[in-house]
Amino acid sequence: MTFITANWNPLGEAFYRKSELYEMCWNLRDGLRDCLVAAAPYGGPIALLREPVRRSPSSRPQLEIYSASGVSIASFPWKSGPVVHLGWTVSDELLCIQEDGSVLIYDLFGSFKRHFSMGQEVVQSQVLEAKVFHSPYGTGVAIVTGSSRFIMATNIDDLKLRRLPEVPGLQGKPSCWVVLNQDRQTKVLLSTGSELYILDNTSCTAVSLPGLAPQGGSIVHMSVSFSYKYLAVLTDSGHLWTGPSHLQDKMSEVDTKKLTPPKQMVWCRRPKSQQPSVVLMWDRLLMVVGVCQDTIQFPTEDQCVLVGEMDGVRIISSTNQELLQEVPLVCQEIFKIASMAPGALLLEAHREYEKSSQKADEYLREIKEQSMLGEAVSQCIEAAGHEYDPNTQKSLMRAASFGKCFLTDFSPGQFVTTCRELRVLNSVRESSVGLPLTHTQFKQMTLQVLIDRLVYRQFYPLAIEMCRYLKIPDYQGVSRVLKHWASCKVQQKDLSDEAIARAMCAKVGDSPGVSYSDIAAKAYECGRTELAIKLLDFEARSGEQVPLLLKMKRSQLALSKAVESGDTDLVYTVVTYLKNEMNRGDFFMTLRNQPVALSLYRQFCKLQEQETLKDLYNQDDDHKELANYYVTASYREKRLESRLSLLQSAVDEYNKAKNEFSAKATEEEMRLLRFQRKLDDEKGAGLLELSLQATMEALLALGLYKQAEQLYRDFRVPDKRYWWLKLKSLAEKEEWDELEKFSKSKKSPIGYLAFVEVCMKSNNKYEAKKYVSKVTPEQRVKAHLAISDLDGAADAAIERKNDSEIATVLSRCSAADRLLIERLNRASTAKK
After folding, report:
1. If phi over 0 gives left and psi between -120 and 50 gives alpha, with beta otherwise, what is residue 198?
2. 490 near 523, Cβ under 8 Å?
3. Which residues have CB under 8 Å from 471's CB, separation 6+?
4. How confident is the model over 496-524, as a mean pLDDT?
5. Cα–Cα distances in angstroms (integers) from residue 300 to residues 268, 286, 317, 747, in the given order
6. Is residue 742 predicted with pLDDT exceeding 80?
7. 213 Cβ neighbours under 8 A, 6+ residues apart
């Protein structure tokens, strides 16, 4: 316990400690002197630009990017203009702000992404100072120009430059300035000597520091806290004023006894801080100034860089990196000398238990008597999260595990979660990974963002192992990592397309949420078309394959894939694309190789593009379908001459196709049309467009029997059909004399029962009786029954000695027909 508190330093009622994070892996010959340095928060990367003011073309500055542990990530000579400031975005992209106002953006691996300018005005006046800040809107940039104007962009991803109002009396750059975020507004606080101004979008307002001593002097340095809620101001007399950033109150004012301005000044506070402080750094001194008037001083042997974090300050030197932070209250209660807190007693009880000492029972009894065992377990678990040393973590978690054995209703959730989180944090804190996150930072960052950072840095095996260990759903975890890995893999130019495709298949397989089409699209963007095609073969969804194949100008392959999918909409999409991209001849030739696509396109043309359909049949020499097209097209023509012309074309095509039946049928249609027009002209019959049968019916209805007879002969209408048509027509018109003449004209091909039935249908029993005698013996019973002649039916049935006919007659007899029934029964018995 004494060892743990050995590096604790009291500050008011709290303690501060410095924990070593890394012995830096880099080898900086000249240390951090003559360097522009930028380190991203949350254990982010470090960028160094050596001798940024060197302008000799023969000796360019070197821009180097390292992990937080000093492992080199990228290094390249700086070939652009002089750099004023370096900064990191929230997504770990490096911003390089030049004198001419250009901002160049590089990724973590030194690849150029894009650039933007802070305005034309800056090109002339140059940038004197710049700051990169993080706001609710994203990453922002603020600059001071040579004309003493402030220009700001609150979100570089949605660039909108704001030129802030002019500051009265300002010549050159201010003595110091900071960017504030208040009420979702970004402002600039600056000082010109002893004067203090706030700049917003529309105004420049003079402000003062509440409670600052009159002898304070000119302001030489300012610093805003990580959350932008607190402000620290240092004067040339060495007075450090701290208070809320809205400048409505004062927290403290401390005389540092230092008259020279520090090189850096950074807030050091944690959430629920007991004793927030400000860290000031001079050449060989690091001073921690608390709001309680106390200070802590640390000598430094090497030039350092301070990086503000949400719960402390990282101190980076050329040899090592440390974390300065306020000791969390729970850790103070457990490890403080002579502490009687429940967590401290439980930790001591576990140590005695490991020694097999009976004192363990005494400590446990003391905790139980106070009913504080549950709180003791919770304290040990919470403290373990705040400790950086794995051995201390284990000691606290073992004590918590020991304590919860004596509890019956303690939920294990907090214990299990903390164990998992500590294992994750310890793995990313390794020097090879270089993410020195505290538990507080991890909670603020969230697990999802941590995985994203590992993926971005290409620590794929660790990210996948972490996802599996934490049982994250595949689509949020492993699949997302594999997708990013695959996108990077296709960019490796030293591997063949075949090797990459095999590696993809082996690693990705059928992982849910990973789209091979997305990976193939990335390969295509990198100029690897053949690899993209190989990867698309692994894509199970044709709807994802086809659009990319079309984009790659692999139209025929896209068409084949669409046909294989069986999705007609997809086929239509490809066909439409091909039609717009190809000349007509090539388009038709392509479709000929895909019968399914050709058939679907024909269906489409039948509904939408009739002329195209004709061209398609011509291209294929499909005479039969072309003839069918002419026939169909003829019905859309209103002029008879045009219709006949199209029908003649159809006859010619049918003859070419050696389809004699269709050719003859079409010729007869033409004859019928001419006949109909002739009659329309002569009689005004309105026959055009009627079928042959309908035409004959109309003629008979109009009494044009000769013309009907002519059609009957010319078109070789079957006798039975013609007799039926004329029979029905005469009966409907009740031309009974004409009907009788017709029946005698020649032997009826439809028999005479039809005459009986048609007459009875018209309720003319008298006429029906005329034809009963002409009915054949086989149908005579039916004829007599049709006219309700039971006696005649009985005579016919008995004459034919047909049991079924006798039975039929009997079924029609009523009780009044007793004599007829007896007669029929005798005939039936005599037959037997």
Report:
1. beta
2. yes
3. none
4. 77
5. 18, 7, 9, 134
6. no
7. 239, 253
Average pLDDT over all residues of the chain? 84
In this predicted model, what pLDDT tens digit does every residue of 787-814 receive, in sequence order? Answer: 877 777 777 777 777 778 778 877 878 8
- Residue 96, both tokens: 């390089």
Please name the residues in contact with 816: beta carbons below 8 A apart, sequence gap of 6 or more. Answer: none
Lookup: tokens for 720: 């039975």
- 542 pLDDT more than 70: no
- List, as own/partner pairs, every contact residues 380-385 make where C-beta atoms lie below 8 angstroms and the sequence separation is at least 24, other chains included: 380/334, 380/343, 380/346, 380/347, 381/414, 381/415, 381/418, 382/330, 382/418, 383/328, 383/330, 383/331, 383/334, 383/335, 383/343, 384/418, 384/422, 385/418, 385/421, 385/422, 385/439
CA-closest candidate to residue 367, choices 402, 319, 415, 418 = 402
End-to-end CA distance of the chain: 128
Which H or E element spans position 36? Answer: strand 35-39
Residue 578 has which token pair?
Answer: 């091909």
CB 770 within 8 A of CB 740: yes
- Give tens-digit pLDDT for 213-244: 777 788 999 999 999 999 999 999 999 999 99
Instruction: Say if strands 176-182 and 185-192 run parallel, antiparallel, or are unpaired.
Output: antiparallel
Spatial distance between the Cα atoms of 64 and 73, rounded to a whole number of angstroms: 8
Residues 547, 551, 552, 554, Cα dihedral to 10°: 60
Dist CA 50 CA 33 (whole Å): 8
Q: Distance between CA atoms of 775 and 754, rounded to whole angstroms?
A: 9
Q: How high is the pLDDT of residue 56?
A: 59
**pLDDT digit string (tens) for 679-728?**
777 776 677 767 777 777 777 777 777 777 777 777 787 878 878 887 78
Alpha carbon 138 to chain centroid distance?
Answer: 22
Greater confidence (158 vs 772) lies with: 158
3-state helix, strand, coil in the chain (%, to 5): 45, 20, 35
pLDDT band with cut points at 50, 70 and 90 for residue 1: very low
| CB atoms near residue 806 (< 10 Å) | 21
> In one letter, which amino acid is 185?
Q
**Token pair belonging to 128:** 């004197």
Query: Are 783 and 797 a contacting pair, CB within 8 Å?
Result: no
Count of residues making up the chain? 832
> Apex CA 625: angle with CA 621 and CA 629, to 5°?
115
CA distance 688 to 686: 6
Separation of alpha carbons 672 and 670, rounded Å: 5
pLDDT surpasses 90 at 52? no
**What does R_g of the chain's alpha carbons equal in angstroms?**
50
Residues 601/575, Cβ–Cβ less than 8 Å: yes
By the 10 Å C-beta count (0-12 exposed, 13-18 middle, 19+ buried), 738 is classed as middle
Structural contact between residues 8 and 327, judged by C-beta atoms closer than 8 angstroms: yes
Tokens of 30: 């000249």
Q: For 75-118, how does the pLDDT look when each residue is reduced to its tens digit (9 = 90+)?
A: 999 988 899 999 999 999 999 999 999 999 999 999 999 999 99
Spell out the alpha helix ranges (H) of 582-688: 584-592, 595-608, 610-620, 623-634, 640-656, 660-683
What span, in angstroms and rounded, lies between the C-alpha atoms of 3 and 310?
27
Which residues are bridge partners to 72 per DSSP?
A: 66
**CA angle in degrees (0–180, nearest 5) for 471-475-477:** 45
Cα separation, 161 vs 151, whole angstroms: 7
Taking CA 231 as the corner, what is the angle to CA 225 and CA 233, rounded to the nearest 5 degrees?
A: 125
